[in-house]
Each structure stands twice: as structure tokens, then as C-alpha cells.
Write a structure and sequence with these properties.
The complex is a heterodimer of chains A (664) and B (649). Chain A has 664 residues and is of the alpha+beta class. In chain A, 20% of the residues lie in helices and 38% in strands. In chain B, a hairpin with a 3-residue loop joins strand 29 and strand 30. Classes of the chains: A alpha+beta (664), B alpha+beta (649).
């Protein structure tokens, strides 16, 4: 139910996977097999599909959506939204997945005309079984959220299920989004919208097939996708129909953007009611929804209550950057993020006093403090992954789910998030680098936050040698300096527990031949400095004539991150990578190098990803040195490059598995 | 005498408690600065005091009052400061109060009732419908340490739901003082059992008129480092469990003083709910008309049920304990463990086969071990037992893939309570030990020196518990998902499966799967200037890693009993010259054995490794050996290489 999308998402996120799937399923939008109507209206169609055990075009499907339709009627300030869906179940797993229907609601939403039917064949006879009204359960999840839920009866492999319901809610100018694409393939999906004819709208369509507008409704009957517009004479309403046929299932893949970036769907946005313009632009949205709110006065004007604090924080700081960092560190280290806040009422003075707030409140307070300190600073509205990124041309405010602060210092822009305890100044969570963002200020403007703006630089320095006391003991020193992202991720995982950190680091130490003597961590709790790990380890040295050794004590990746052979979507990394491994090995006395792997340079996708592995033997010093570097210059790789990407990682792993051979 | 003892203890307790007063703004006695240093080691939070009073008025009226203060020491301890109490139709929560104090004990703010989250459990557990709800609140505060204080009452309407007491929440929390008082009228209707109580526990027992009061006082419980694989029991910290002798559950009287009585109560509660529609009865008779043995009939009817029903958990009110009618499950085609078990029981009854429901505590790892000497309601699942003189059949009714007669890891090897018309009987479910749960892998690799990619042929057999997960995937995944799975399941560095086949073998009581796969593997062969390293140890380490920083003070508890035998045949070119090859090795300890060998036969090398793990509890002295074996197996990835040399280069 996209109408309540943001709040409802919070509810759905807490659901177990199977229920979540259903909810997502329900929130998707609709269409049909034959445009004449749902197959359940025709007994022969039902029998035909009940007998069907396999869909030629979807051989791997566990279920197929035969028909789905959404009817959105906006009339006299009430949105009536009817959903119908008919699904063929092809295996038991799908019966378990889709057999429970969950209808979530927030606030004053009423569900009407709920109906659920299962069709089965029993010895060749069509058996139709309806959900009893008594089996439709209402669960008051919280004081504001509830769900209606029911189970389709006698559902099994081979069944066809159908359900429909109508939602009624007060709505001024809102029509739910419609998703044509789901977890299962869809034969027919249709969205009908009826709105007052003086409502002017625009729409954003994402479809693999163009939804060409036709002049006759009947023309839709033979189209893979199309639309039809029709004013209803005398009613003051205008209808629009969009249809789509034969939509493949949306597959999950790792290193892919969220579902909402790919789903075939339609989104409606009203631009005018008659001659009265609605919120057509981001500028209007920022001005009317945000800046005109009374609470923003604290950010821009009445922020004197912050003066004393700001003065204290910036006292003695000579550079503007240091001042900003001091303000940011104060916010990050002194305030708690209150994610479960039940009563929402923005009051920055109160947020400041109680030292806690929502993500939005803390963002505004950070901005207010920076402004009070004399900086040019504004909040930025963004859609963090996995949400669909904001649209630069279209104020899709329902996608806004995160807020950060922008501050400009010496003509350079920094983006800050003080709600994350372990984030350094000037870095956002990787999920925030999701394209368009809107700076909210009196002259609002857009920015781009690209994952390419973020690079995680990791440096590993290894030294291998022998104890001065005994030549039987091989000593390894490994210093790992993590990049900003890795440092953040580790700090967040360890959450200040150094004992836990050391335990995990010991367990993760890869050199199994070595006995770990000690692990030390530098900058454990200072987010503004790189996290650094120092290992010291020893191994008893064999004095065989030949010694085989692998000298990569910290490999760039243990396994190929792309095990799957096939790929449907581009590969998207959250940030760029730059990993470096350097080793110096002073050979034991009496040994020399007998065999050394060749140096290797790999390049992929026109140099956008590279691996350079240089191995050198200095005969005079009897020393081996390795310089191994892996880097990316982009975060997006097209599907066409996938096989080569997979091979690249295979070869890089292989290079770091190679042995050297020493002989006496 | 007993009276005096309790008086003394109560007085002592009330004197020493740094008791918070709701009206006070300054509570320096709860200052975090006054916490004993010993209580801060390993601790993220310290229970400053915890006083719990349980007053049993009668079978249907129990008052539970609790007041406690916890100091949160660091970020990792903040969850200890959350208020979270569950309730349902039989348990009410009232009078919740709370306060937040800063490090010195100064009152920062109080909990406001309107800020408490009251939420149903929907979406947070496996149930589709239940009356379980919870109330939750969190003081969100950024400066550590700080202290939270909560006070609340519960009214419990049935002695079926007696609470327990476990003041040390887990290993990361220490306890300064914790007090528990239990009072009930004579005759004695409450039993208790203590677990892991320290020697310093102080107890009292007192009777005034007909009311018996028992108390427990724990002091100075230090936090500790959790030692993996060390817990032979159900508890990690001192715990008191209570159970009623008699109870009334929503109008149904019962006893749980013996397993026999508790089993009888469950039987009576669920009896006469096994009537089936006439059409189904007719169908059943037809389905089994060609079956000649009971086992065949069980299999036929189980299979029928699996195909025609699905699992939906409805635990609202009494339906949490009483099954839905078989007729209803039959009509709707879904039910929970009770409902599906009762349904199959009804189907079998129609076939002339008597079966009984058995209450179980299910789960692969952390199931609650039933104590034969302490009957209590500690079950979370129901399975079906078809008794026979020589060959009892156990059936897991919520699983749509298992064969009848095989339970899988979810309910194997534990005590369950069979519920019969003669009462309850504790029985042990079948155990699938290493004679039944094993993995035999055979691989053949013909070395191709012209390529970095090698072809490896696999022929593997998975038996018993080792095939549980695979069976589910193979029976439920569509082909594209199966293909994806098979290309990720092997532990080669990187590979592509070009051909695969799975065959279900074994028996109904012991399923097995034979897997055949042809793989193109990268990363097994590494060339240097003149040598080729062929690594043959690509299998995962079957041992569970034990990661702990302190010394081992607790035993090693291994719950799994299995064996894995791997054979890798490496075929080399006729002209290959082997420079070195591992000779083999063996580690044998009471808890496990690991043996591997390399044999050269002509141009072939056979690498065989065998790991056997023995279920049991082993003294802490085995810890170093355990670690040695674990690291030794891990090191194989680097050590177990066949090295070929090309002397021409």
C-alpha cells in the first residue's frame, strides 16, 4: 500500500521474510491475462489453468500471477482503491509463500469487500472454496497500526487463488503507485485510475515495453503494454488505463540496487487541480512543506539557545574546518538517535536539551549548530538505499527516508551525518550515496551523491623475518590500516567492545601456520582516525632443503564474490575500493629463492578495475618484496561485463594463492 | 524459627538495597561510581538490585511484582536498559514506572506511560495469529554510564504460566543484589528447581498462617566471558524455575506434578477432536486399500497430508494449547503443529492405526532439555508417534518434505512427552548418530597442466542429518534456484558446475542423497616458475570454531555426532615428476578423530581424510587438543599440496 508507504515500510521491515514477501506483493500494482477480465470470471479459463502444470515461458516459476488489477478511484476527497489478484500455484513452497494474505493499515483506513477464494481440481471437478468471514482476523499491531489477515483455504501445488479487497481512505491528491512486476512472473497486469477531470497529473513509467497510448480501448487487448485515456461524459471524472502483459519475475542478485530501482511500475503525481498548482517542483516542496514549518525557525533564526554551546566548542579553534569538526563531533558523540520515538513533534530546543532525537531532528540540530557557528549549512533530503533514488525532475517525497547535513567550508562541500556514532566528518553511510538529493534551503537546489564519491582505502604492511635470538622462529608483523568505510563498519560491529574486537580479529587471522602473539588496535574509538590493527605472530621454521610458502597473509578476498554464473542486472558496488598489500621478507640465512611466481597485472573494463601484483627478489639483500594493489575507478559494471568480472576475481584470488619456494 | 529467619533476611535485604524512591531527584546510592570493580569485568551492565515478588493466591490469581535498577556501562550494554515485557490474554501488565539516572544518580527523567510501545507479536515470530503482545520502552541516553529503574506488576490468571527468575540476564551482565520471594497458600501447589545457583545463595522459608513464603537472595554475581560449546544444560546463569502442581487453564483443570498427569491433561484437552468429514474418510479408505503394512499406510496418509495442507500457526488463547478439530484442518487445508498432528492422527485412526501426540521442545541447537525429574510446561512443538512393539514410527507433521519415520535435526535425540489416555510418558526420539549421519565424498581430478581450470568429478553421499537442508532445497527450489545453489555450495575457490544430478536414496526412516557433479574449478592449481602446486584440501573444516580470549574453565559440549570421509583421486600425466607430497597424519582425541593419508599408485595419488566427531561432554583439559585439531585442519588449505616440478625450466 504505497499510500502509507513510509510508515508502513517500518512495520513491514519487522516482519519475517514470508510475510514481508506477501506485503511487498500486495503493495505491488496490477494487471491481467486477457483484457476481458479476470480468468475467474470464466469457468473454462479456470479449468484450463488448473490443469496447467508448467508455463513454457517461465519454466522456473513457483507461481504465476495470472491476472491482477488495481482500480484507484479518487472522488470527493476519498480514495477508493480496489485490488484483485489471481495466482496459479505451481509448487508447495509457493503455496506457503503466498497463502497468507496480510493487509496492513495505518490510521483511519477501512478495508471493505475482502474476498479470498481457492480453486482446485478434485477428480477433474472444479472445487471453489471461499475464505470464511470469521477467518478474516484483525490484529491491532500497535495503537496506530493494524493488519487484516486471512489464509486461503486448501491451497496446494496446482491450486489457483484469487483475492480482492477495497481500501477507502481520505485522500486529497494521491494515487498509489502501481507495480507491474513481482517476485513471480505476471501474465497480465492492469491499473485503472479514475480521477476528477480537472485534476492534472503526470506520471513516471518504468517498463521494459513502451506503454503506448491508444485511441480505442479494445486496442489494448492485443498489446504487450499500452494505455488508454477516456473522459467519462457527464460524471466529471476521467479514466486512464495502463496494461502490461508477460512480465518476468524480478530476481534477487547480490551487488544490485534495490528492487525499487528496477521494478516495472507507474507512479502518478498530481500537478494541478484546475488552475491551482500543486507541489510540482522540489523547490515548492521544500518551501511549503519544510521551510514554512514553524519548527525550522530554530535552524535558521531563533537558534540563540545554541550560542553558548557553539562558543565553547569553537573556542581556540583556528581554522574553520576545525570549528566545523568540533561542532560535528559534539553532535555525534553527545546525542543519541531515538529510532523508536513514538510521539513526533519537532522541537529542536527540546531535542537539544534531552540530547536525543530522531534522525531528522538530529540532522536539523547539526545544521542549526553549524549555522550558529557561522557556517553555510543546510539539511539535505535523500532516499537511502535500498529505496529508489529521488527523481531530480519530480518531487517524489514519499521516497525520502534519510536526512544529512551539508556544510560548505572554503568553497568545499562536506556532507555530515551525526546520527552515526562511528562515522567520521565528511562521510556518509554507503547507503546514502544513492543519486539525487535535495538541499533544503530558501533557494533549494539538487545535488548528486554518487557511490563513486566514496573510496575505501585499505593498506596492509607485512614484515616477515627471523628472530634475532633464534633462526628457528619466523616472525610476522602485520599492520592493517583500514579505510574510512571499513573503519566505520568494524567500529559499528564491535561497538566499543575491545575484548570482542580482539577475539574476532584473532579468529580471523588467516596465517594458520603462525601462532598469534598479540593483537593491538590503534584508534579503536576515534572515528576521525583510521582504525589500525597490529598483529604479531610467530611460527616454528622448518629447516628442510625446500620450503614452500604463501606470502599473502591477508588476501583481498578469500572467495570469489561473484559465484553465480549468470547475471541479469548490472553490478553495483556501494563504494570504490583501493586495497594495498606490501610485504618484505628477509630470507633465512642459508636459503635462497628457488622459485617465484611471476608478477601479474590484470585490467578489467577499460581499466575501471585493476590488480597489480609485483613480486621482486633482491639477491643482494636476500629479500623478497611484494606489492599487491587492487583498485576500482567506478562502482557500476554492466551485465555484459559480468563474465569478465567473475574471471577477474578468479585470477586475482589465484595470484594471491601462489607459493614461493626457498632452497638451502 | 523459620519465621525469624525470613524476617532477618528481609530486613537485611531492605537495608542493603540502594532502593530508589520515585520522588527523589538525587539517588547517589545508585551512582555508577560506586559499583564494585569486580562486577565491571566482562560487564556491559550491572543489575544494582532486582526484587521480585510472586504471590500465588490460588490457581487463577498470581501477582508478580518486580522492581529493578540496571546501570548501563557502555554502548554494548544499552539493550539491557530496555523495558520489554510480554503478556497475553492470561497475563496483564500494570503499573509500569521507570526512571533514568545519570552516572551520579541524579534523576534525568521518568518514563511516561504514553511513550510505552504496546505491540502484538505479529510479524516478529512464526505465529500467524496469537494473543501474545509486549510492552516496551527505551530510555535513549547518550552518556555512559547511566542507570535505569523499572517497576511493574503482572496479574497472572493461571498457574499454568508461572514465571521463572533469572536475574543475571546473560554473561555480559553482572548482579550486585537480586532478591526473589515466592509465597503461596498451603497445601503446597508450587514446585521449584534451582539451576547454577552459587554457593553464596541465601534462602529462607517461612510460614505464616497458611501462607508459605520462600526467598532467594543472590549477591555479587560477576559477568563472565561466554565460552562457546560449553553449556550442557538449559541455562547459562543462575535460574529458578517454577511449576504448579495443579492449574486451571481457561476453564480446564490439570496437574503437572508428574509427567503422567501432565500428559493426561494434554490428552484430555485434545481428545475427541479427531472426527473427519465422511468424504475424507471414504477417500482415506480408498487411498490405503492396496497398502499391506502399517508403515505403508502411515506413509500414504502422511504423504496425502503433506500434499494437502500447509503450516499456519494459530495460537490465540486456548488454541495455543488445544488443537483445532481435524475436521477444520481438513476443510481449510492448514493448521499448526497441533492441528496437523491431530489431523494425521485422525487419518490414521480411520486406517485403524492408533497414534499419539507427543509434546516436544524442538530446535536444532538450543532446544530445552526436558528434565525427567521436574515436570513442567516447557514444550514448543508437537509431533506424532505411532507406537509399535518393535518399530515405533515418529512423524513430523509440519514438514512437507520429510518421509514418514524420519524426524530430522528439529526433533531428534531428545525426551518428548507422549500424551495418551493413560497419561503421559517420557520417550526418547530416535538419535541420528554417526552411523546414520555421515557424508562420504569422492572426487576425481585428472590434472590438466595446459589449463588453470581443472575438471573435478564429484560423487557424494549425504545421510541422515547431513542431508536435511539439502533435501529441503532439492524438493522446493525451482530449477534456476537449484542451479544457483549448486554453483555456490562447494567450497572450491571458484567453480562452475557443468552437470549435476541428485538421487534420493536411503530408506523412509533414514533418508540419503547421492550427488553427482562435474565441475570446472579454478584456484586449485598454482604455477610458479618451475613448479605446480595442486591443493587437494578444498573441503570446509567440519569443526565448529571456538573463539575465546580467556582460559577454558568449562567443559566442551559437543551435541553433534557425525563423520565425514573424503577421498580425492588425483590423476597425473605419465611424465609428471612429483617433488613433494604430504605424508599424512592423524590426530585422535576422545571428542574427535582426524586422519588423513596420501598414497601414490603409479601416476595416481589418493588423498583420504576422515573426520569423526563424538557427541559428549569433555573436560576442559581437552580444549587445547580441540584447538590444535581445528587449526591443523585449517592449515590443510596451505599444506596439503602435491608439488610437481618441471626440471626443464
Amino acid at each position: 500500500m504505497q499510500i502509507y508507504s513510509i510508515s508502513m515500510l517500518k512495520l513491514t521491515l519487522s516482519l519475517p521474510p514470508f510475510l514481508f514477501c506477501i506485503l511487498i506483493f500486495l503493495s505491488l500494482e496490477m494487471q491481467v491475462y486477457a483484457s476481458q477480465g479476470d480468468i475467474i470470471d470464466n469457468k473454462d479459463s479456470v479449468l484450463f489453468y488448473l490443469q496447467k502444470t508448467h508455463f513454457e515461458h517461465y519454466p522456473d516459476a513457483s507461481a504465476v500471477i495470472l491476472y491482477e488489477k488495481g482500480d484507484a478511484l479518487l472522488y470527493h476527497g476519498v480514495l477508493s482503491y480496489k485490488i484483485e489478484r489471481t495466482i496459479k500455484i505451481l509448487n508447495q513452497d509457493a503455496a506457503n509463500q503466498v497463502g497468507s494474505v496480510i493487509l496492513p493499515a495505518l490510521g483511519a483506513v477501512s478495508f471493505n469487500k475482502i474476498r479470498g477464494i481457492t480453486y482446485n481440481l478434485d477428480n477433474g471437478i472444479l472445487v471453489k472454496q471461499e475464505v470464511d468471514k470469521a477467518d478474516i482476523i484483525k490484529d491491532e499491531v500497535t495503537d496506530r497500526a493494524s493488519v487484516l489477515k486471512f489464509n486461503l483455504p486448501s491451497l496446494k501445488a496446482g491450486s489457483i487463488l484469487h483475492y480482492s479487497y477495497t481500501i477507502e481512505v481520505f485522500a486529497f491528491a494521491h494515487i498509489p503507485d502501481w507495480n507491474f512486476q513481482h517476485e513471480y512472473p505476471t501474465l497480465y497486469s492492469e491499473y485503472d485510475m479514475s480521477i476528477p477531470s480537472y485534476y492534472i497529473f503526470t506520471h513516471i513509467i518504468r517498463s521494459d515495453f513502451p506503454l503506448t497510448e491508444v485511441n480505442k480501448k479494445s486496442a489494448l487487448d492485443t498489446m504487450e503494454g499500452g494505455s488508454f485515456f477516456e473522459p467519462i461524459k457527464g460524471s466529471g471524472q476521467a479514466n486512464t488505463i495502463w496494461i502490461r502483459r508477460h512480465i518476468r519475475a524480478l530476481k534477487k542478485e547480490p551487488y544490485r540496487l534495490g528492487d525499487n530501482q528496477y521494478l516495472e511500475r507507474i507512479r502518478i503525481h498530481f500537478t494541478n487541480i484546475g488552475r491551482e498548482p500543486l507541489l510540482n517542483t522540489w523547490d515548492q516542496v521544500c518551501r511549503s512543506i519544510f521551510l514554512e514549518g514553524k519548527s525550522y525557525i530554530y535552524v535558521y533564526d531563533n537558534n540563540n539557545f545554541l550560542r553558548e554551546t557553539v562558543d565553547k566548542l569553537t573556542a581556540g579553534k583556528t581554522s574553520t574546518l576545525d570549528k566545523a569538526k568540533a561542532v560535528f563531533a559534539f553532535m555525534r558523540d553527545s546525542f543519541a538517535l531515538d529510532e523508536g520515538k513514538k510521539v513526533y513533534q519537532l522541537h529542536l530546543r527540546n531535542t537539544f536539551n534531552i540530547r536525543r532525537g530522531t534522525q531528522w531532528e538530529l540532522c536539523l540540530l547539526t545544521t542549526a549548530l553549524l549555522r550558529r557557528a557561522g557556517f553555510e549549512s543546510d539539511p539535505v533530503l535523500i532516499a537511502a538505499k535500498p529505496a529508489e533514488s529521488l527523481n531530480a525532475m519530480f518531487p517524489d517525497i514519499e521516497n525520502i527516508n534519510y536526512y544529512v547535513t551539508k556544510v560548505t567550508i572554503d568553497q568545499k562541500d562536506y556532507y555530515l551525518d551525526a546520527t552515526q556514532k562511528y562515522l567520521p566528518f565528511g562521510i556518509l553511510l554507503p547507503k546514502c550515496y544513492n543519486g539525487y538529493g535535495r538541499v533544503m534551503c530558501r533557494k533549494s537546489y539538487g545535488i548528486q551523491l554518487s557511490p563513486d564519491d566514496l573510496t575505501d582505502r585499505n593498506v596492509i604492511m607485512a614484515t616477515l623475518g627471523f628472530s634475532s635470538e633464534t633462526e628457528h622462529t619466523l616472525q610476522l608483523k602485520l599492520d592493517k590500516q583500514f579505510g574510512q568505510i571499513s573503519s566505520f563498519q568494524y567500529r559499528k560491529k564491535w561497538n566499543g567492545d575491545q575484548a570482542k574486537a580482539k577475539k574476532e580479529l584473532k579468529a580471523a587471522f588467516e596465517a594458520d601456520k603462525f601462532h598469534l602473539i598479540r593483537v593491538n588496535i590503534d584508534n579503536f574509538s576515534d572515528p576521525d582516525k583510521p582504525l589500525t590493527i597490529h598483529y604479531e605472530a610467530e611460527a616454528e621454521m622448518s629447516h628442510d632443503d625446500l620450503l614452500y610458502m604463501n606470502l599473502y597473509f591477508d588476501k583481498f578476498c578469500k572467495d570469489n564474490p561473484f559465484p553465480s554464473v549468470h547475471r541479469s542486472f548490472p553490478v553495483n558496488l556501494d563504494y570504490q575500493l583501493n586495497n594495498n598489500y606490501f610485504l618484505n621478507f628477509s630470507l633465512p640465512r642459508g636459503y635462497t629463492v628457488d622459485d617465484l611466481p611471476k608478477s601479474r597485472i590484470l585490467e578489467f573494463y577499460n581499466g575501471q578495475m585493476g590488480f597489480k601484483n609485483i613480486i621482486m627478489y633482491d639477491t643482494s639483500a636476500n629479500q623478497i618484496s611484494i606489492s599487491s594493489k587492487f583498485h576500482t575507478n567506478t562502482t557500476t559494471f554492466p551485465v555484459s561485463e559480468y563474465t569478465d568480472l567473475r574471471t577477474f576475481f578468479e585470477q586475482m584470488n589465484e595470484a594471491q594463492q601462489k607459493m614461493i619456494v626457498l632452497k638451502k | 524459627m523459620r519465621f525469624r529467619k525470613i524476617k532477618v533476611l528481609l530486613s537485611f535485604f531492605l537495608c542493603i538495597l540502594p532502593f530508589f524512591s520515585w520522588g527523589k531527584n538525587d539517588n547517589s546510592d545508585l551512582s555508577a561510581l560506586s559499583i564494585d570493580t569486580n562486577l565491571q569485568i566482562y560487564a556491559h551492565a550491572v543489575v544494582r538490585y532486582d526484587s521480585t515478588f510472586v504471590e500465588v493466591a490460588d490457581l487463577n490469581r498470581i501477582k508478580f511484582k518486580r522492581k529493578y535498577a540496571i546501570t548501563i556501562l557502555d554502548e554494548n550494554g544499552k539493550d539491557y536498559g530496555n523495558f520489554l515485557q510480554s503478556y497475553n490474554n492470561q497475563i496483564e501488565i500494570n503499573h509500569i514506572r521507570g526512571a533514568l539516572l545519570n552516572a551520579t544518580g541524579k534523576l534525568i527523567r521518568r518514563l511516561k506511560e504514553k511513550d510505552i510501545l504496546d505491540r502484538s507479536m505479529f510479524g516478529l515470530d512464526y505465529t500467524f495469529n496469537s494473543d501474545s503482545r509486549f510492552k516496551a520502552y527505551s530510555f535513549v541516553y547518550p552518556s555512559y554510564p547511566y542507570t535505569v529503574i523499572y517497576e511493574f506488576e503482572k496479574t497472572i490468571k493461571s498457574a499454568f504460566f508461572l514465571p521463572g527468575w533469572s536475574p543475571q540476564i546473560n554473561s555480559g551482565c553482572s548482579v550486585d543484589q537480586a532478591f526473589f520471594s515466592l509465597s503461596y497458600p498451603e497445601p503446597d501447589n508450587i514446585r521449584h528447581q534451582e539451576h547454577l545457583m552459587p554457593a553464596s545463595l541465601q534462602k529462607s522459608n517461612h510460614q505464616e498462617n497458611s501462607i508459605v513464603t520462600q526467598t532467594w537472595l543472590l549477591t555479587n554475581l560477576a559477568a563472565f566471558e561466554l565460552q562457546p560449546l560449553s553449556n550442557p544444560s538449559n541455562f547459562n546463569t543462575p535460574t529458578l524455575t517454577l511449576a504448579a502442581t495443579e492449574f486451571n487453564l481457561l476453564g480446564h483443570n490439570g496437574k503437572m506434578n508428574t509427567w503422567k498427569n501432565f500428559g493426561l491433561f494434554n490428552y484430555e484437552l485434545n481428545k475427541e477432536r479427531d472426527e473427519l468429514p465422511e468424504s475424507t474418510r471414504k477417500l482415506i479408505r480408498k487411498l490405503i486399500e492396496n497398502d499391506t503394512s502399517s508403515l505403508q499406510k502411515i506413509q500414504t496418509l502422511y504423504s496425502y497430508m503433506q500434499k494437502n495442507t500447509r503450516y499456519v500457526a494459530d495460537e490465540y488463547g486456548l488454541s495455543g494449547w488445544q488443537t483445532f478439530d481435524a475436521n477444520e484442518v481438513c476443510t481449510k487445508g492448514y493448521g499448526d503443529c497441533k492441528g496437523l498432528t491431530n489431523y494425521l492422527k485422525a487419518l490414521l485412526k480411520e486406517a485403524g492405526i492408533t497414534a499419539y501426540a507427543a509434546l516436544a521442545n524442538a530446535g536444532e541447537a538450543d532446544y530445552y532439555k526436558i528434565d525427567p525429574n521436574f515436570p513442567a510446561n516447557t514444550f514448543n512443538h508437537v509431533i506424532l508417534c505411532v507406537p509399535a512393539k518393535t518399530d515405533t514410527t515418529w512423524v513430523e507433521c509440519t514438514n512437507q518434505q520429510l518421509p514418514a519415520g524420519y524426524l530430522g535435526g528439529f526433533t531428534q535425540n531428545r525426551n518428548v512427552l507422549l500424551t495418551t489416555e493413560k497419561g503421559g510418558f517420557l520417550l526418547k526420539t530416535p538419535a541420528y548418530k554417526k552411523d546414520k549421519s555421515f557424508l562420504i565424498r569422492n572426487a576425481k581430478m585428472v590434472f590438466n597442466k595446459a589449463s588453470e581450470e581443472q575438471t573435478v568429478l564429484l560423487h557424494n553421499e549425504y545421510s541422515g542429518l547431513m542431508q536435511d537442508d539439502m533435501m529441503y532445497m532439492l524438493k522446493t527450489f525451482p530449477e534456476d534456484k537449484k542451479q544457483k545453489w549448486v554453483n555456490q555450495k562447494f567450497s572450491f575457490p571458484s567453480y562452475l558446475v557443468t552437470n549435476y544430478d541428485y538421487t534420493f536414496t536411503g530408506t523412509r526412516k533414514l533418508p540419503a542423497i547421492v550427488e553427482k557433479a562435474e565441475t570446472k574449478v579454478m584456484g586449485l592449481v598454482h604455477n610458479t616458475g618451475k613448479r605446480t602446486f595442486i591443493n587437494l584440501d578444498w573441503m570446509l573444516n567440519p569443526m565448529q570454531e571456538i573463539s575465546q580470549s580467556g582460559s577454558r574453565t568449562k567443559p566442551i559440549v559437543l551435541r553433534k555426532d557425525f563423520k565425514i570421509i573424503d577421498s580425492v583421486l588425483l590423476v597425473l600425466p605419465e611424465d609428471a615428476e612429483i617433488e613433494s607430497m604430504p605424508s599424512g597424519g592423524a590426530l585422535q582425541f576422545p571428542f574427535a578423530s582426524y586422519v588423513y593419508s596420501f598414497q601414490k599408485r603409479g601416476n595416481q595419488i589418493l588423498f583420504v581424510r576422515q573426520y569423526q566427531q563424538n557427541e559428549g561432554i569433555y573436560s576442559k583439559e581437552n580444549f587445547d587438543d580441540y584447538q590444535k585439531m581445528y587449526h591443523s585442519i585449517n592449515a590443510g588449505k596451505e599444506n596439503l599440496n602435491v608439488v610437481l616440478i618441471d626440471k626443464k625450466s
